[in-house]
Amino acid sequence: AAAAARPGTAGSAALFERAVAVTPGGVNSPVRAFNAVGGTPRFIRSARGAWLTDVDGNEYVDLICSWGPMLLGHAHPEVQAAVADAVARGTSYGTPTPPEVELAEEIVARAPVERVRFVSSGTEATMSAIRLARGFTGRDVVVKFAGCYHGHVDSLLAAAGSGLATFAVPGTPGVPESSTALTLVLPYNDRAAVEQAFAEHGDRIACLITEAAPGNMGVVPPEPGFNAFLAQTCARHGALFISDEVMTGFRASRLGQWGLDGALEGWRPDLVTFGKVMGGGFPAAAFGGRADVMHHLAPEGPVYQAGTLSGNPVATTAGLATLRLATDEVYATVGAAATTIRTAASAALAEAGVPHLVQSTGTMFSVFLTDPADGPVRDFADASRTDTIAYAAFFHAMLDRGVYLPPSAYEAWFLSSAHDDRAVETVLDALPAAALAAARA
Ligand code: PMP
């Protein structure tokens, strides 16, 4: 179908000009800017269900979903009502409140954790989990994987050192060498590298942290048994296994990535971090795990951790309403929409002759514009082969046809249970022309 006449983007352009004058890059989180794809971001005025409306009146099918949280779609009436009710009773007291108990009970019932502590962002969750692991074990070294993002925690903004089991170097200016000198960065899905790191440094390793299934270098599923192997290796060396489910939690499946591996294989992580879906679109995140480990947190134990807005009653009310509404049926709906869209994307790219790979875990997937002859994307080095120039052309062709994809080639495409036939059809209609644009790039 030909693209309908659209209202233009003058309003977004004007706001972006103002934004750049008062905010670095005009955005409050770098990936929102269109630096990787060119052009200026759209300023969104409102959203409902699967649709975003920008300040000029353009409508877009949303394939970002706030980078994961909006599992039920935007402005879900029951979540809105619960939030309105919470707001009417005041927004923050600095005392314990009922909804934080209920949300903690809901998470403990669903996820492999016995205790949970709320924070306000995924970054805080991983930062706190690592502090707790170090405090609990009395050890200093942290192991992570290249391409796994755990928020902007100094010690985790690390790039691999010169050898496999050598310590990391800062991944950004502003992180001192001393902050990454206790971090080991390994290639993902590489058992030999993990074994070597633990053989050389095992008695110093406090924890290994991994995305439960990486989604921040595009979706790179753990090879079968890889997470179980990590859990066992950590246990053998007295280190804690931290599964970062900030992105996958309550999204990849009802039980997160753990529902797709650990629950079936019979192992549990020592600590888990959560965010995104569990906040229902508000700033709420959490870390949790074994009771004997969590017991080391203040005020029960000596490891300090705190937050003025932690467990905020409005945010935890939104998260609770979202999780209660996130039934098996919701995951089936999201999964079906994901299957339709990833199948159609692959068909359109194939038709246009664009080399690509689609990878998924549960309801999450991403499209790599890379040659499938080189094999699956198993790690960050593989992910880096994706053709970012072709993706930029693809992205803009989709945007012009009313589909807002992540403005980066290294991201999952997020759907919601509000992605109904009309939303999915809009995506399917846009794909052939976008695939041709990618082919010509
Ligand atoms: N861990 C993972 C796996 C994430 O995907 C993210 C955010 N994309 C974070 C941690 C950090 O969360 P936040 O942006 O809320 O700090």
UniProtKB/TrEMBL annotation:
PROSITE patterns in UniProt: AA_TRANSFER_CLASS_3
Keyword Isomerase belongs to the record: yes
Residue spans crossing the bilayer: none
Subcellular location: Cytoplasm
Source organism, top-level taxon: Bacteria
Matches recorded under HAMAP family: HemL_aminotrans_3
Name of the protein described by the UniProt record: Glutamate-1-semialdehyde 2,1-aminomutase
Gene source species: Nocardioides panaciterrulae
